């Protein structure tokens, strides 16, 4: 890293950096700046009125709450799945490991209609809960389930490598000192897993807040009840309420960027721990 | 590794020594819960797609796939990926070269900016292009005057797809090229090789598996993107409908079997992508151990 730009003998610095910056500006930066410019067309009271209207606030609340619970479920089960995949042997392990990536690769619309048909009142799982008076599809529970599906790989894939790198010396020492397995896990292993767990949680949470395709089918889209923020943006666009859509989007965007910064510092922390251990 | 979204991991198959693992029944219970979770959350939806797609038999399935609207959606999806993926590949290679071969100010900022599209909701990724090129958009007037349609037409769909899949390849290549260092290229250059020759003869063979890995993931996302494309497409049947949007239309018209039939095509794409991915991963693992 100490080498300066002038010293590198390799060619292509201007060409590649120039192209990178140009392409980044055209595809990402200018369009995003356009969003800010368009919002600036609103006066502050107009902007405020839009983003604090009850329907908009409700949509933020639903998005945040369902994403939070989904990320929480994924943190618990993601840790368990990662643990089982790294530490134990069982038939079909390779297959299970491969299945973890399905939510990354499966188009969200496909996931959306499949989950809806499973959890609808006449679906395989939905009909088990319907007599109990519990509606899964077309309720916040359904939204949470879709977001759990979307978020599975984030926690598993961040915890897995750390668990793999974990040296067994510490565990050995703990066992030699007479600690029980559960105590060893809590006092020796779990602290090492906190950074990747938090990173995975934050990644799943951030993805959940913006998610659209897998949720629209199962959510039922009732304003104030099951309308997520991204859907409200689409609804406003379809009604040609461009400035309102833009204002709602800007708040969501700021929230996501805030999370991105948190995730970046979490990852740096996690990497530092990994290297120093 | 910086790219948390796709990390290469190997599933090791050696068992831990006895005193460092749990009692047999604990292992059994934990494995059981994990399998149940993965089974219900991930496997069940996949099985559902297949069962629903073939519920009314092969003929209905085939009719849904062969429908002109489905064919034109497939064509649009392929065209979009064929344009968006190569452009993002060129960008990814250029960005990774600039970032890993040179030191310059603002490098970390650049990496963060490349990551931005990961953090943006797909809906917003589509919205920004409407705000730029839509009828009321910043450049909207100019494009209308010149009779160029961007939004609610193919260019908008391609742009939105490019935005969403923007970081994939760069994100795969940067950590890979970082660990490989500059020695090989520096040796080639000092022996008198020109820049392009160095790249094609030295760098490309070194990164080919990582690059391919990035390309197939980028492609899967490009073909499956729903939210961003949905906002800019305008949903004109047979014209601006991609496969995922076609699924939505069929589903909303209560043509469930047809919707799931088309969905099964995209599911096949996802599964093939993951199989290629795991093949590449074992290649990468082997080349790492070979060093």
TrEMBL record, chain A:
One of the record's GO molecular function terms: ABC-type sulfate transporter activity
Main subcellular localisation: membrane
Pfam assignment, any one: BPD_transp_1
Gene3D superfamilies: MetI-like
Entry keywords, A to Z: Membrane, Sulfate transport, Transmembrane, Transmembrane helix, Transport
Location(s) in or outside the cell: Membrane
A single cellular component GO annotation: plasma membrane
Top-level taxonomic group: Bacteria
Domain (ABC transmembrane type-1): residue spans on this chain: 60-263
Membrane topology category: Multi-pass membrane protein
Transmembrane segments: 21-42, 62-86, 98-120, 132-156, 188-209, 245-266
Alphabetized PANTHER family for the sequence: SULFATE TRANSPORT SYSTEM PERMEASE PROTEIN (PTHR30406), SULFATE TRANSPORT SYSTEM PERMEASE PROTEIN CYST (PTHR30406:SF8)
Subunit relationships: The complex is composed of two ATP-binding proteins (CysA), two transmembrane proteins (CysT and CysW) and a solute-binding protein (CysP).
Role description: Part of the ABC transporter complex CysAWTP (TC 3.A.1.6.1) involved in sulfate/thiosulfate import. Probably responsible for the translocation of the substrate across the membrane. Part of the ABC transporter complex (TC 3.A.1.6.1) involved in sulfate/thiosulfate import.
Family that this chain belongs to: Belongs to the binding-protein-dependent transport system permease family. CysTW subfamily.
Record protein name field: Sulfate transport system permease protein CysT
Species assigned in the record: Cohnella fermenti
TrEMBL record, chain B:
Keyword Transport among UniProt keywords: yes
GO CC terms in record: plasma membrane
Chief localization: membrane
Domain ABC transmembrane type-1 intervals: 74-277
Topology of the protein relative to the lipid bilayer: Multi-pass membrane protein
Cellular compartment(s): Cell inner membrane
InterPro entries: CysW_permease (IPR011866), MetI-like (IPR000515), MetI-like_sf (IPR035906), Sulph_transpt2 (IPR005667)
Molecular functions per Gene Ontology: ABC-type sulfate transporter activity
Keyword Transmembrane appears in the UniProt entry: yes
Domain of life: Bacteria
Keywords: Cell inner membrane, Cell membrane, Membrane, Sulfate transport, Transmembrane, Transmembrane helix, Transport
Residues annotated as transmembrane: 29-51, 72-99, 119-139, 151-170, 254-276
Quaternary structure (record): The complex is composed of two ATP-binding proteins (CysA), two transmembrane proteins (CysT and CysW) and a solute-binding protein (CysP).
Known role: Part of the ABC transporter complex CysAWTP (TC 3.A.1.6.1) involved in sulfate/thiosulfate import. Probably responsible for the translocation of the substrate across the membrane.
The name this protein goes by in its record: Sulfate transport system permease protein CysW
Biological source species: Cohnella fermenti
Gene from which the chain derives: cysW
């Amino acid at each position: 890293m100490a080498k300066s730009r002038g010293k590198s003998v390799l060619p292509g610095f201007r060409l590649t950096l120039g192209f990178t910056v140009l392409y980044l500006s055209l595809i990402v930066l200018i369009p995003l700046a356009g969003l800010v410019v368009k919002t600036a067309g609103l006066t502050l009271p107009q902007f405020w009125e839009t983003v604090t209207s009850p329907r908009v606030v409700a949509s933020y609340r639903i998005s945040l709450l369902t994403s939070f619970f989904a990320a929480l479920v994924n943190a618990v089960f993601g840790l368990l799945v990662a643990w089982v995949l790294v530490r134990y042997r069982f038939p079909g392990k390779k297959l299970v490991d491969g299945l973890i990536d399905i939510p990354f690769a499966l188009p969200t619309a496909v996931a959306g209609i499949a989950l809806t048909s499973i959890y609808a009142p006449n679906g395989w799982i939905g009909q088990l809960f319907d007599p109990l008076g519990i509606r899964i599809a077309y309720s916040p529970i359904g939204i949470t389930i879709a977001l759990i599906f979307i978020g599975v790989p984030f926690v598993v894939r961040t915890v897995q490598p750390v668990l793999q790198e974990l040296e067994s010396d510490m565990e050995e020492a703990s066992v030699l000192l007479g600690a029980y397995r559960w105590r060893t896990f809590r006092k020796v292993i779990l602290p090492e897993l906190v950074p990747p767990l938090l990173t995975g949680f934050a990644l799943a949470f951030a993805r959940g807040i913006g998610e659209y395709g897998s949720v629209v089918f199962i959510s039922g889209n009732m304003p104030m009840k099951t309308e997520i923020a991204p859907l409200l943006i689409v609804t406003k666009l379809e009604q040609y309420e461009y400035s309102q859509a833009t204002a709602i989007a800007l708040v969501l965007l700021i929230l996501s960027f805030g999370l991105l910064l948190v995730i970046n510092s979490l990852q740096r922390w996690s990497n530092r721990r990994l290297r120093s251990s | 590794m910086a790219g948390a979204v796709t990390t290469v991991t190997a599933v090791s198959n050696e068992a831990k020594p006895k005193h460092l693992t749990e009692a047999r029944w604990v292992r059994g219970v934990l494995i059981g819960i994990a399998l149940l979770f993965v089974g219900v959350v991930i496997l069940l939806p996949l099985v559902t797609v297949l069962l629903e797609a073939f519920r009314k038999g092969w003929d209905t399935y085939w009719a849904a796939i062969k429908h002109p609207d489905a064919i034109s959606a497939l064509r649009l999806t392929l065209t979009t990926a064929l344009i968006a993926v190569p452009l993002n590949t060129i960008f990814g290679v250029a960005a990774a070269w600039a970032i890993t071969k040179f030191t310059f100010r603002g490098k970390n900022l650049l990496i963060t900016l490349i990551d931005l599209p990961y953090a943006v909701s797909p809906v917003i990724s589509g919205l920004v292009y409407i705000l730029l090129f839509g009828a009321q958009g910043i450049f909207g007037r100019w494009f209308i005057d010149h009779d160029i349609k961007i939004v609610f037409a193919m260019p908008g769909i391609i742009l939105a797809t490019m935005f969403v899949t923007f970081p994939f390849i760069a994100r795969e290549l940067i950590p890979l090229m970082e660990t490989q260092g500059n020695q090989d290229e520096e040796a080639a250059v000092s022996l008198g090789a020109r820049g392009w020759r160095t790249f094609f003869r030295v760098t490309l063979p070194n990164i080919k598996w990582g690059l391919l890995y990035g390309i197939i993931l980028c492609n899967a996302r490009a073909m499956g993107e729903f939210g961003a494309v949905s906002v800019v497409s305008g949903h004109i049947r047979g014209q601006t409908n991609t496969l995922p949007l076609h699924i939505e239309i069929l589903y909303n018209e209560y043509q469930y079997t047809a919707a799931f039939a088309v969905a099964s095509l995209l599911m096949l794409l996802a599964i093939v992508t993951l199989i290629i991915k795991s093949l590449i991963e074992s290649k990468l693992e082997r080349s790492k151990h070979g060093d």
